[in-house]
Design a protein that fits this description.
- The protein is of the alpha/beta class.
- It contains nine helices and 16 strands.
- The strands form three sheets. It has a nine-stranded mixed beta sheet, sandwiched between helices.
Length: about 325
């Protein structure tokens, strides 16, 4: 039986590879080693030769293909759906791995419907069972983990939750880069981009930030988010929010971190006044380090925190901000 390649859709933004795409390479390499197939990274877009060259030197990648089309930049679901569907038809991959980003969730479901393929969203693990792919995912707010087995021989589609795998790193040599023609029909272009406004969450966007400071109901009222914003500014961090604060109207949904908002994977996640509901913990599971500030010593957030401060956030956060500012003033920031 000939096994098709493991196809990774290499997402990028503003001329840079999305970190989640590097995590997909790690997942794909493990699968490819288990079933003796290749890892192929597809780079859809317009003017993406530089991005393709960066993917070509990532360890674990066997081939890079470029799906160049002017309709693929900026992102619109119609053209991207058509391009990814076209790639799958041509390559007939064993599995297709897509980041569980806002854009990935958008076109993945459309591609699956167009090609009548099974799709498992937000997987946190992949394995093989008698030559069939098994995808693991967390449900019920992360309290239960399930395994889903693809039954037929059609390409298996999976979106991968951020932080589920480590990021692949650059290797010592470059693999080949090939151009692939994709078919985009007029009906795929029925929607056009009128205006683009970059959402700013603190200093950086949540999904790409290395540091995030998030606030919860412990802040008491919307105005007290100023404490979070001040701390985020000194840390050059993005500002996030819990689902409870978004539900209360204190912050926009664009700032929400959790299973119904952004799933993030920063180096540092600082939770201020967040108790740690299961939905929120799922969203921050990819963080390298979690620091929690809460006056309740039994708050669930402390069970996952790398470092916890039990205390009044209205005392702790200003003191921390002052100390960090002092360090920056002395050239140690």
């Amino acid at each position: 039986m000939t096994i098709g390649p493991i196809l990774v859709i290499g997402e990028h933004h503003n001329g840079k590879i999305r970190p989640a795409s590097l995590e997909l390479v790690t997942a794909a390499r493990r699968l490819a080693d288990d079933n003796f197939s290749d890892v192929v990274v597809a780079v859809p877009g317009s003017g993406v030769a530089g991005i393709a060259s960066e993917f070509a030197v990532i360890s674990g990648v066997d081939r890079v293909i470029v799906a160049e089309h002017e309709a693929l930049a900026p992102f619109l679901p119609g053209p991207w759906t058509a391009a990814v569907a076209s790639l799958i038809r041509q390559l007939e991959p064993f599995a297709v791995l897509i980041p569980s980003s806002i854009t990935g969730r958008d076109y993945a479901a459309r591609v699956a419907a167009r090609l009548d393929l099974a799709l498992v969203p937000d997987a946190v693990g992949l394995s093989l069972d008698e030559d069939h792919l098994v995808a693991s995912r967390a449900v019920l707010g992360g309290r239960v983990q399930t395994s889903v087995r693809f039954l037929d021989d059609a390409s298996a589609m999976v979106t991968i939750a951020p932080g589920a795998f480590s990021r692949a790193e650059s290797g010592t040599s470059a693999v080949s880069i090939e151009d692939f023609a994709v078919t985009i029909e007029p009906e795929d272009l029925r929607v056009s981009l009128v205006e683009k406004m970059e959402h700013k969450a603190g200093a950086k966007g949540l999904t790409t930030a290395d540091r995030i400071v998030s606030g919860g109901r412990g802040l008491g009222k919307a105005e007290n988010f100023a404490l979070v914003e001040e701390l985020a500014e000194v840390l050059n961090a993005a500002v996030g929010a819990s689902g409870a604060t978004v539900g209360a109207g204190w912050r926009s949904h664009g700032d929400q971190v959790g299973s119904t908002g952004h799933t993030v994977s920063p180096r540092l996640y600082l939770a201020v006044g967040i108790s740690g509901a299961p939905q929120h913990l799922v969203g921050i599971s990819g963080a390298d380090y979690i620091v929690a500030i809460n006056r309740d010593p039994d708050a669930p957030i402390f069970k996952v925190a790398s470092f916890g401060i039990v205390g009044d956030l209205f005392e702790v956060v200003p003191a921390l901000t002052r100390q960090l500012n002092a360090l920056k003033d002395h050239g140690r920031g």
